[in-house]
DNA sequence: GCGGATCAC
DNA sequence: TATGGTGATCCGC
């Protein structure tokens, strides 16, 4: 972990503001990352948003320092104790390993952008993003070559790619096409789990067995049928659990697939060199903390540093980290899921006018009431 | 139990 | 000019 207050940052200040848009995303392999970071920094510096990001980054650095100090204080006896704790947990987790089910994760390629291109074919081959000057939902692959990506504000994207075409979001359209894909999914697993409009998990164990085909063959067929029914392409991952299937669907994106066999050695080899940031649930903060405190970058290192993980983190966090190191993930078919909360929020420009703040509160409460 | 932080899409 | 909205979970207090 670099020290963000170092002299080198004063020479290249944009490198201290480096936590946004840095994780690898499909279609962004050839991008000049330093140029993108410089443009993002130039467009961001001085803004309230930027100040808040810096405040959050400073807080994380402080948290890392605190945890490093705790780690350094651990005695040999402590470490020996926590090594035993970790070894025991690893054995217990290993005992839960399930290799009898085949999971498929399907992920539509640049979904919103692809749908918009279907309804307006003149967009084909041109850099395009769905969203507004404030925020982009997604960008097509032509735009990604310029460093434009989902969650980036449009005004920065236009700086990176002056010819970028902006298309406003149209959820009705995406919901309709999502429904078409789900009709295809249903044929392979009637209990499939929708993760969003453009992602789903399918337990294809049964259909593989009944038809005497491999998971890879099902994935090829499903992707063809999705394309026939919608004109859209998707990518798929096949693996013994959902966590791994999700990682696999990203490997040959777009319009590709990757199969990880139901074999313990294959899983352990696959997971060994895998960057932890690829794992769902490990975001930029957790990545920074694990790297900064324990030097952990790959899943394999989760097991090697098991004693520290058990010493420094809660039981549930340590269990999650160790299970990642083992390549374990969900294999069950959860029953119906219930919504636990409902909320409404709106971003607005800063004001100290009490009357206007109360009015906004009333408006948002009204929207929430309508939703409920 | 609550509010803030983190994460995913 | 300008950096989203919804829902879930975890942690510290």
Automatic annotation (TrEMBL):
Highest taxon listed in the record's lineage: Eukaryota
Family the entry assigns: Belongs to the DNA polymerase type-Y family.
Keywords: DNA damage, DNA repair, Metal-binding, Nucleus, Transferase, Zinc, Zinc-finger
Location in or out of the cell: Nucleus
Residue ranges of domain UmuC in the record: 103-283
Coiled coil feature spans: none
Name the record gives this protein: DNA polymerase kappa
